[in-house]
């Protein structure tokens, strides 16, 4: 088993099941043209998020880590007409690319991109006393995963679905001796999830075009 094979299988899945439309393909091209790192979710993972949103019946989504808006658009496609997304992005340049991608895809009326460090913008979001979020997708800087999880819980409600991406880190999450800040962020997130009785959770390892990684998925009880 190797990365080339995983990529071929991802292509096979995407060709038959994913149905990535022009707006999504255009977003990836625009990201590349603007020099954004190719660290978006894969097409199959984007469709997975889309299906989770549909299955959960979510109407209000919080995304922490926008990049160029590829995952944002996938989730927006699953929302009802009155649904909305607030997505948080640290880099102003990334946020501008995302806004253009979102407008091109036709979702500017239901997606708000907020710029700044999420550790700073999340408290501001909480202070607005908005309705709870039904679905939270976390795909930002990994050392702050525990911080983002705490805010996902505060901004959610019983039944909120939370997805935390990139938690396996090429298997290094099981290495207690690792000093990699990204691995430590994943391990701290696992400890937080395990210790919090409000969360029912599991994690799944994945392989594919994005390599060997995985995600944690949980529901707030």
How would you concisely characterize the structure shown here?
The chain is α/β, with parallel strands linked by helices. 45% of the residues lie in helices and 20% in strands.
Tell me what portion of residues adopts beta-strand conformation.
15-25%
Task: Supply the CATH architecture.
Answer: 3-Layer(aba) Sandwich
* Integer count of domains: 1
Shape: globular
- Classify the fold: give the CATH topology: Rossmann fold
Report the CATH C-level class.
Alpha Beta
Distance between the first and last residues' Cα: 38 Å
Let me know the average pLDDT.
97
User: Which sheet architecture does the biggest sheet show?
Assistant: 7 strands, mixed
Residue share in helices? 40-55%
Alpha carbon gyration radius: 17 Å
Number of strands: 7
CATH superfamily: Vaccinia Virus protein VP39
Order of helices and strands: HHHEHEHEHEHEHEE
Q: What spatial order of strands do you see in the largest sheet? A: 3-2-1-4-5-7-6
How many helical stretches? 8
Q: What structural class do the secondary elements suggest? A: alpha/beta
* Residue windows where pLDDT falls under 50 for at least 5 positions: none
Polypeptide structure, described:
- This protein is an alpha/beta fold.
- The chain has a single domain (3-220), classed as 3-Layer(aba) Sandwich (Rossmann fold).
- Helix content is 45%, strand content 20%.
- A seven-stranded mixed beta sheet has the order 3-2-1-4-5-7-6, sandwiched between helices.
- Helix 6 packs parallel to helix 7 (145-155).
């Amino acid at each position: 088993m190797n990365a080339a094979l995983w990529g071929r299988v991802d292509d096979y899945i995407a060709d038959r099941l994913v149905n990535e439309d022009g707006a999504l393909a255009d977003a990836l091209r625009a990201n590349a043209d603007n020099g954004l790192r190719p660290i978006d979710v894969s097409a199959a993972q984007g469709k997975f998020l889309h299906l989770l949103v549909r299955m959960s019946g979510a109407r209000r989504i919080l995304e922490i880590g926008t990049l160029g808006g590829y995952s944002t658009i996938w989730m927006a496609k699953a929302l009802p007409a009155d649904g909305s997304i607030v997505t948080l992005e640290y880099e102003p340049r990334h946020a501008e690319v995302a806004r253009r991608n979102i407008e091109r895809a036709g979702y500017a009326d239901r997606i708000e991109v907020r710029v700044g460090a999420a550790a700073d913008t999340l408290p501001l979001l909480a202070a607005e006393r908005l309705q709870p979020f039904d679905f939270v997708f976390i795909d930002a800087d990994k050392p702050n995963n525990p911080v983002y999880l705490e805010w996902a819980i505060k901004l959610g409600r019983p039944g909120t679905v939370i997805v935390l991406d990139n938690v396996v880190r090429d298997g290094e999450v099981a290495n207690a001796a690792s000093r990699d800040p990204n691995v430590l962020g994943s391990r701290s997130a696992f400890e937080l999830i395990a210790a919090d009785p409000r969360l029912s959770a599991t994690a799944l390892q994945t392989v594919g075009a994005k390599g060997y990684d995985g995600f944690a998925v949980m529901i707030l009880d």
